[in-house]
Design a protein that fits this description.
By secondary structure, the protein is an alpha/beta fold. The chain has helices at residues 18-27, 42-52, 72-81, 104-121, 133-142, 159-167, 184-192, 222-233, 237-252; strands spanning 2-7, 30-37, 56-60, 87-96, 125-130, 150-152, 170-174, 198-200. Helix 5 (133-142) links the parallel strand 5 (125-130) and strand 6 (150-152). Helix 8 (222-233) crosses helix 9 (237-252). The longest helix has 18 residues, at 104-121. 47% of the residues are buried.
């Protein structure tokens, strides 16, 4: 009963074998999948995937890398789509200072607009954070994001940052990087995160866990993340799966 809380199965990397990838996920014990739409291109295909499979859900949001392209019409469109029964969160949204494809002030504005929309609609948010820990925390605090909470997707920060995020009603999610042998900080943070605040994900087709690192990631591999997390937490795989799935069900209102 595992849940992959962040994947991109609508990505072109899966065009040739998407159904097989989804079947392998089911065979690996994944019962629910949250697929992420993040711009004009990916949002419609993400929702279409959720409509096709009853155990797949979708998010809708505008990625910080694409922030410079988002218009007021796009924000209205996202708001309309949030009424779809399979749309469970706004995201992924946030700040990305690594790729720097959109000006920081534009990223900031687009991020804040979507948090305000989430608060208006009462929906959780999925946060993308790349090299922007301080500014992410500041925006979340100023925009009262704790009113809706959400998830820090593929968390890469310190324990101090994780504590601040949890204080603002956010779950901490880990993906493939926590399985890497040199991933000292992610493992230490995961060990300290309370079980009722923990989520797992793949971010497929990216961030493939060990031992498949360097190859295309897929949702079935969330089991590898779960096994690592269970070992770090001193739990059985079943205990870890049950807790993280319940967290996802509660946070996103899944069936």
């Amino acid at each position: 009963m595992l849940t992959d809380t962040h994947t991109h199965l609508n990505a072109p990397q899966f065009d040739e074998d998407r159904h097989d990838v989804i079947q392998r996920a089911l065979e690996s014990g994944i019962s629910r999948i949250i697929n992420v739409g993040f711009n004009r291109e990916t949002i419609p295909s993400s929702i279409a995937l959720a409509e096709q499979y009853d155990f797949i859900y979708s998010t809708v949001g505008w990625h910080p890398q694409d922030a410079k392209d988002m218009t007021a019409d796009d924000l209205d469109w996202i708001e309309q789509l949030c009424s779809h029964p399979k749309v469970v969160a706004i995201g992924e949204i946030g700040l990305d200072y690594y790729w720097d494809t959109s000006p920081k002030d534009v990223q900031d504005r687009v991020f804040r607009e979507q948090i305000r929309l989430a608060r208006k609609l009462g929906m959780p948010i999925v946060i993308h954070n790349r090299d922007a820990h301080h500014d992410i925390l500041q925006v979340l605090r100023e925009e009262k994001a704790s009113d809706v909470g959400g998830v820090m997707h593929c968390f890469s920060g310190s324990w101090e940052t994780a504590k601040l995020c949890m204080d603002m009603n956010f779950h901490i999610s880990f993906g493939g990087p926590v399985t890497f042998k040199n991933a000292k900080q992610p493992k230490e943070v995961l060990e300290k995160v309370p079980l009722d605040r923990l989520l797992i994900e793949t971010d497929a087709p990216y961030l493939t866990p060990h031992p498949f690192r360097g190859k295309r990631n897929e949702t079935a591999y969330v089991k590898l993340v779960a096994e690592t997390a269970a070992e770090i937490k001193g739990l059985t795989l079943e205990e870890l799966a049950r807790a993280t799935t319940q967290n996802a069900v509660t946070l996103f209102g899944l069936l």
